[in-house]
């Protein structure tokens, strides 16, 4: 099975711009979660999508948004970029079907965003 | 709220040395516990997990036991190799207060193994 893929792998933007990152989960997985990794704050949960609905959300401002399509692919968008948004953005997929069972999250390689 | 604390690095060891990376947690419910590893320039890979108290997770020579009484999940390996050099993250998910797929991570511990 192909793993989680993320595009693009690297991105450079300037302050004030917006950016869209894409994540394709493992085939058959319906849950996609997004994380931000920075040297200062570490790994922080952004949000989770399941069956095209946001199921969980972390403590990030409204500039961070996401969506999920019917094929489970997900995108996250950051509007009005700030220097502090420079980070590695990771997505993870799992086959969790909401049946109350802990399943493994599989991570993609990440998209490294640099805001200048 | 939920949190994970792990020992600060870097941890520097010689090949074949014994490894311990400490991890303690705070959770309101009954969390599942994980160790993930991140190699340079890559995403996270699940190393091992434990979903209930006294469970032992193991993989590739690494082990960790879920200790509810000490709220700990320390990572151990009897004999490290140069290829184990990476950053190790302890994490939890708490379905009662965050959901199964909301992982709370520790700060990470960098391990460097020298020949």
Walkthrough of the structure:
The complex is a heterodimer of chains A (116) and B (115). Chain A has 116 residues and is mainly β. Chain A has strands at 5-7, 10-13, 19-24, 31-38, 42-50, 53-57, 64-68, 74-78, 87-94, 106-107, 111-115. In chain A, strand 7 and strand 8 form a beta hairpin. In chain A, 37% of the residues are buried. In chain B, strands 2, 5, 6, 10, 11 and 12 form a 6-stranded mixed β-sheet that branches. Chain B has a 4-stranded antiparallel β-sheet with strand order 3-9-8-7, with no helix packed on it. Chain B contains no helices and 12 strands. The radius of gyration of chain B is 14 Å and the shape is globular. Helix content of chain B is 0%, strand content 49%. In chain B, a hairpin with a 5-residue loop joins strand 5 (32-38) and strand 6 (44-50). Classes of the chains: A mainly beta (116), B mainly beta (115). The interface between A and B is medium-sized, with 28 and 25 residues.
Gist of the model:
The complex is a heterodimer of chains A (116) and B (115). Chain A is built from no helices and eleven strands. With 116 residues, chain A is mainly β.
Fold blueprint:
The complex is a heterodimer of chains A (116) and B (115).
Chain A: E1 5-7, E2 10-13, E3 19-24, E4 31-38, E5 42-50, E6 53-57, E7 64-68, E8 74-78, E9 87-94, E10 106-107, E11 111-115
Parallel strand pairs in A: 2-11
Antiparallel strand pairs in A: 1-3, 3-8, 4-5, 4-9, 5-6, 7-8, 9-10, 9-11
Chain B: E1 3-6, E2 11-14, E3 19-21, E4 23-26, E5 32-38, E6 44-50, E7 56-59, E8 62-65, E9 75-77, E10 86-93, E11 104-105, E12 109-114
Parallel strand pairs in B: 2-12
Antiparallel strand pairs in B: 1-4, 3-9, 5-6, 5-10, 7-8, 8-9, 10-11, 10-12
């Amino acid at each position: 099975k192909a793993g989680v893929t993320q595009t693009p792998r690297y991105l450079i933007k300037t302050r004030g711009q917006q950016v869209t990152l894409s994540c394709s989960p493992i085939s058959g997985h319906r849950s996609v979660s997004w994380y931000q990794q920075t040297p200062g704050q570490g790994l922080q949960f952004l949000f989770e999508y399941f069956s095209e609905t946001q199921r969980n959300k972390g403590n990030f401002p409204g500039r961070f948004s996401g969506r999920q399509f019917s094929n489970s692919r997900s995108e996250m968008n950051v509007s009005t970029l700030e220097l502090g948004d420079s980070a590695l953005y990771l997505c993870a997929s799992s086959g969790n079907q909401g049946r109350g069972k802990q399943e493994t999250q599989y991570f993609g390689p990440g998209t490294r965003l640099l805001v200048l | 709220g939920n949190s994970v604390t792990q020992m600060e690095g870097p941890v520097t060891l010689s090949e074949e040395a014994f490894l311990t990376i400490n991890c303690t947690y705070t959770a309101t419910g009954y969390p599942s516990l994980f160790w993930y590893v991140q190699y340079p320039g890559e995403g996270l890979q699940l190393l091992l997990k434990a979903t209930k108290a006294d469970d032992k997770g193991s993989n590739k020579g690494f082990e960790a036991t879920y200790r509810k009484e000490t709220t700990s999940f320390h990572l151990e390996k009897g004999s490290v190799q140069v290829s184990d050099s990476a950053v190790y993250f302890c994490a939890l998910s708490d379905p009662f207060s965050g959901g199964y797929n909301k992982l709370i991570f520790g700060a990470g511990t960098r391990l460097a193994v020298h020949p």
